[in-house]
Amino acid sequence: MAMITTVQQHILQQQQETLKSTGREATGTFSWLLSGITLATKMVEAKIRSAGLDDVLGAAGAENVQGEQQQKLDVYANQALLHCLGLRDSVAALVSEEDEKPVTFNRDPEAGKYIIVFDPLDGSSNIDVNVNVGTIFSILRRLPPEHGTLEESILQQGFRQVAAGYVVYGPSTVLVYTTGNGVFAFTLDPKIGAFVLSSERMRMPEQGSYYSVNEANAAGWPEEFRTYITKLREGELGKEYSSRYIGSLVADFHRTLLKGGVFLYPPTTKQPKGKLRLLYEANPLAFIAEQAGGVATNGVSRVLDIKPEGIHQRTPFCVGSPREMELLAATVGGR
Ligand code: AHM
Ligand code: MG
After folding, report:
1. Which of 111, 168, 199, 325 makes a 20 to 30 Å CA pair with 62?
2. What is the pTM (predicted TM-score) of this model?
3. Domains and CATH numbers, the chain
């Protein structure tokens, strides 16, 4: 019989290793927390698979805090995560793209140690046309009460994340995550309903062949971004780049992680702070990128160093292979 490693087993194995190297006892809290995330994402994936059959496509009729139309699946995905995670005693707060304020639980800080920040259904404008969407999550540790409030705990810099990951709902459903000790991917095996280890210690290639950006916005970018794209196209890095842009961040990022290259969402005249959200889009993907040997900036400085000021704060986001990101820094400045 072929040996498989499920995501739960993998977390336990990693904790055993930590135990050996640090002597610290793993309580199992963290794996219980992650099992809440995997359960919710399996519910979302099941809903997406039958989206055209059940009446779940289209708009739900409301707008979210960003002023965007909520899709029915956005609402479902948000509820699935809130439900599966809210029952876990170790959760102090849940922060979602879809909710204006954090959902907090009045739990003893000793027990309620974690904060989970998530984008329940990223790229949802693609759902009606059967194109990949995803879920992104980031886990933070609550600060001890003498070091900060719950709100301050939510607004910690990205380098303090204890774990981050995403699920891409594509031809297959893949979970990618890091706890700061490498990046691992798991593919959902529909026959057994479990995420099974499919890639270990993933590395982003040193250089890729694609840039990924919404070029319709080019006239509104700072000029250096236009110069940068021209350089890539015209062979400054030794090859003439091609472009790929899906419009689902998780899918565009997943390709960049596997194949290398660069993904950009620069500032525009209409959105001078960029479009993507720091806490539940840029930070988790920046953590994964760095753990895989890639680089993530806002064009000028490291994403994981940005001090968040609000839970729905936006940021320009540039992430990719070291070669492309070096050229970006040389062209756009900073870092
Ligand atoms: P969403 O979280 O509301 O789905 O929006 C985020 C999405 C990202 O997935 C994607 O990278 C970006 O918006 C695409 O934006 P645009 O259509 O402006 O290119
Ligand atoms: Mg979203």
Report:
1. 168
2. 0.94
3. 7-11+24-199 (3.30.540.10), 210-332 (3.40.190.80)
